[in-house]
Amino acid sequence: MTETTTSNARPKSRLARAWDSDLAYAFRRSPVAMISLAVAMTLILAAVFAPLIAPYNPFDPATLNLMNGFTPPNEPNAFTGETFWLGTDDQGRDVFSTILYGLRISLFVGFAAVMLGLTLGVIAGLVSGYYGGWTDTLIMRTADVQLTFPSILVAMLIFGIAKGVTPVEYRDQMAIWVLILAIGLSDWVQFARVVRGATMVEKNKEYVQAARLIGRGSIPIMFRHILPNVLSPVLVIATISLALAIIAEATLSFLGVGAPPTQPSLGTLIRVGQGFLFSGEWWILFFPACTLLALALSVNLLGDWLRDALNPKLR
């Protein structure tokens, strides 16, 4: 007689447990989330591996041929006979290659700016919600004052000040970092307000009282006990903020106060293409704009799905 026991059953791996979670189940049931993730990951991977995918290095002067300028998509050039999948711009640069390299700048600025805003906002929210009093008043009134101005204007102001104090010979080299600083400092408020509200709820719960009774300090309680319990809304805001940061970078670059011409982002490419839209070279603007739209829309839809999936009231 054979006895079957569950003691010999192998425990599920971490990957298997994640696949069986409620979040993964909700993801598999949402075609919009799956398509958005596929589009976003395709664009991110294309940007990461741009040097391997791009047929040309569009920013290497040795590879440029001005005779290839204004070549329409997938048509041979009248002088050189070369064909480019998405056409070329006024300098003969392959538009497909410029989009891949521009994606790298836009995504890098977006991710870095969100991480900066998230870090500042989470720290400010934890401190404000945990200590309260004049600390809470000072931080929240600063946030309220910043909210009275459009974030793009705040970013332009910070960008102008930071660029003004940067030595002239380093401005082009530091332009990307100044852009990250400007967008990040204009984006911390929403993280701080959400984390503050969640911290004010969590600090009165039993596990925080128990941590105080055993002699834990304020900083360990905030970062080791309260922080893990307030990260769910932060993750949702970070996903949505990534799309907004990418759009903010494109807006600043389109206005000429963002990425330099030597390191063009999607916004810079759109600004360049806009000057040739009414002369018939539509592809110089159209393809970078479609790429920016696909990237921002997919990340935004993914953030909207994540917000609904993590909301316990909708389960």
TrEMBL record:
Lineage, uppermost ranks: Bacteria, Pseudomonadati, Pseudomonadota, Alphaproteobacteria, Rhodobacterales
Entry keyword DNA-binding: no
Protein name, UniProt field: Stage 0 sporulation protein KC
GO biological process, one term: transmembrane transport
Protein's UniProt keywords contain DNA damage: no
Organism annotation: Thalassovita mediterranea
One matching Pfam family: OppC_N
UniProt gene name: oppC
Domain of life: Bacteria
Localization per record: Cell membrane
PANTHER family: ABC TRANSPORTER PERMEASE PROTEIN, OLIGOPEPTIDE TRANSPORT SYSTEM PERMEASE PROTEIN APPC
